[in-house]
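This protein record is not my work; I was only asked to verify it. Where you disagree with what is written, explain briefly why. This is what I was given:
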Amino acid sequence: MTMFLPVTIISLLLTQAVPQVPVKNVTAAPPAIRPAMSGAAAANVQNPPPNSITVPIGSLTVIRGIRENQITGWGIVVGLAGTGDTSNFAKQQIQNLAKTIGLTVNAQDLSSNNIAIVNVSGTLPAYPEPGKRIDAIVSSYGDAKSLEGGFLVRCPLTGALGGDAVAVAQGSLIIGGFQASGQAASVKKNHTTAGLLPRGAILESGAALAQMKPVSEGNNLFLDLKQEEADVADKIAKSINIIYPGSAIALNPGTVRVTVPANCDELSGNFPAFIAAIQRQTIVPYERPTVYLDEKTSTVIITGTPQLSPSIIVRGNLTITIAETPRVSQPSAFSSGGDTTTVPRTNITAKEDKRELSMLPATSSLADLAQALSALGATPRELVGILAELQKTGALHADILQD
């Protein structure tokens, strides 16, 4: 048996004395928020710095009120080649289905391993119209081995609150795998108990009840940022003001309010073009320094430009090995007495790696940080612990996300 003790990390943050500068007690008025930019400010937004990444506003925000909805339902898949459910519940569902078409079926006459009880789900689009087709996902509820070759019987789909069906799904399943077995061997590829019905659900008249209300409140449209960031919200507002002067203002780090022009309201016919013009505008987003750590898979992902203060790291690995080699003790031949017994024997060895101090200089870029950490010669698993300890001591200036 071998035990590996956790890596011991000592991080010393090197600081320098900073002279105190007297600060005058001056009360300054907050800068005025201008509705539109001009001159150098507008040119800076329109012409981003070289080697910078520009992202459309539509990729960073969602329009408040425009959203999809989840719909779901219970269904039965038939036509399986003996790979369906084996429970009595499946037979009861077949009986219930037969009653709806005026048939009386005895449960004892049914072979349920050719059918499977499934969950059918789909996504109702933001602007549903009766007759529109959407995809449906079919997943097995019971102990079916495979849905390969199955056909979904007509299945009504409802919203979270139930009520009238907003869609009906039916059709042959597409399975991204297969399964075959014999008496002594079997083969399986990918997942065979879930499948897809491409455009297999048709929206019904009940979908009209799920249509959205007008997304603009009064004459205002609200853009909600997918990730709240004050710098990004400010840039979005300034970028919109270039094409629609004075129309946008960042209310908070997560919301930008846009005033809809009188000729672009939702009933004017110009509303889609107005939204498209806003979403096409590009900005240079703020990249927050973030380090993602997953100790289970020893995965480290670093984004943005995290900075590292000067640090000294000491790593030491202590390995303790415990080996049990029991021996058998028995009396001599032709002896008149004594018993055969097992005598325990334990060997314990300890090994500690001798490693020197590692000095990490101050870094200001992602490349410098990767090079500095690589110089330590640490394994990915050790790197997870090192980064966590650096952030704990305040030497790593970045947000840490851990799973």
User: Anything to note?
Assistant: The domain at 54-65+214-283 is CATH 3.30.1360 (Gyrase A; domain 2). The chain has three domains: 2-13+290-326+344-402, 54-65+214-283, 69-177+190-210.
